[in-house]
Amino acid sequence: MKQNNIKIIQYNSAYVEDTVRMWRESKERAISQKEIHSFEDHVFFLNNILNRDNEIYIATDNNKVVGIIAFNGNEINQLYIHNDYQGKGLGKKLLDMAKINSKGRLTLYTFEVNHKAQRFYESNGFKIIGRGHENGENLDDIKYEWVRQNEYYKE
């Protein structure tokens, strides 16, 4: 992955099908089960529900969607990276956007079966604060929290 080809832009519905396809493929690999919602429902969720309370950004590589993040000042709702682009810094770049735009504290949920995500969030300063969130997939969740450290006390 050449970093200079990747652009992070505000989500635009012109990218909906490419975004949903990438999101579903990434999620299915992460949790080892097929997406339970139809493609059409996923499109509707992205274009009509997720955008109500979240800023949504996508990462593109030559107009191919390779990442998505949806967040607000308090939580990260979604963060998915194309399977071929994982482990190369793109997730951290999107996560840092959410941190910078946060109120100093962010929470998020990840599936307990998604060990790769757990390592990623824990290596980026998130701590486990809860378990067992209900979700449509009927999988156990882990709730994470990140708190901005006081700049004066950095070591």
Automatic annotation (TrEMBL):
<dbReference type="Pfam" id="PF13508">
    <property type="entry name" value="Acetyltransf_7"/>
</dbReference>
<dbReference type="InterPro" id="IPR050276">
    <property type="entry name" value="MshD_Acetyltransferase"/>
</dbReference>
<feature type="domain" description="N-acetyltransferase">
    <location>
        <begin position="6"/>
        <end position="151"/>
    </location>
</feature>
<protein>
    <submittedName>
        <fullName>GNAT family N-acetyltransferase</fullName>
    </submittedName>
</protein>
<dbReference type="GO" id="GO:0016747">
    <property type="term" value="F:acyltransferase activity, transferring groups other than amino-acyl groups"/>
</dbReference>
<dbReference type="InterPro" id="IPR016181">
    <property type="entry name" value="Acyl_CoA_acyltransferase"/>
</dbReference>
<dbReference type="InterPro" id="IPR000182">
    <property type="entry name" value="GNAT_dom"/>
</dbReference>
